Input
Amino acid sequence: MSLTTILSISETVGINDQRFVGQVVSRNQRIATSEIITVVPFAFEMKPMQYLTYSQNRGLLNSLRIPDKALEQYLNFGSTGWLNYIEYQGDMTSGQIASCQWQTSSAAKNLVLGNLPSISSTSYIVKAGDFCQVGRYAYIATADVQRGIDSTVTIPVHRNLIGTLASSVAAVIGQYGTTVSMGGLSYTGITFPVILRDYPTYTLVPMTDDSFIQWTGSFNAFESVLLTRLLQFKTQTIFVTLTLCESQVRVEPTALPLRHRH
Output
């Protein structure tokens, strides 16, 4: 939870959840736009406060040093003072959300939620701006959605569903619900898998019998969106799993035997 600790002591948090859009203004002052379709990754800029004491935070420094800018870390807003960013606005209780499941019919920018509770048809399942997590990734609801009378509801969200669902997945909405395992741990509420793009150094400022930690800049974290592919080479058949992040590439050979050509 090292990066979440940095989040919790940050003075400000910058958030980028914008699409990749280009603009051009012609000589006659007409504007045109174009968009490259991406996964619309979340990016966070965290500016930590400068008054952590070194003696009490050596463990924190070590937990940041291990992943550095190479490995995934996880940002859980609900366990910090920044809960308001992802706080649930609807009418379901935490237990009711935990019983709901995302359905396999979820696709594109529509999440289908089933196992709904028996509440008023006019109660809100989500409101615009609520965060919904399906597996590893979070999505922002773009409209209010009421319970209605059907067995499922469809929630429009700000980006396309990343991957497909082979089976129903437990719902995580706002600060409620339990995530899938990420990095060997599950989390309560919306949690972002990220990799640091900017990892500031620090300066020790002396004080009586200790030192303050002063960071040289902000921590900039970029959502880690994974993509798995099987590649086959012509010279000999070698199967490898290629794990891609926006800022990381790792190639891992599998245990499959080679097939020699005769």
In short: Confidence is low (pLDDT under 50) at residues 228-262.
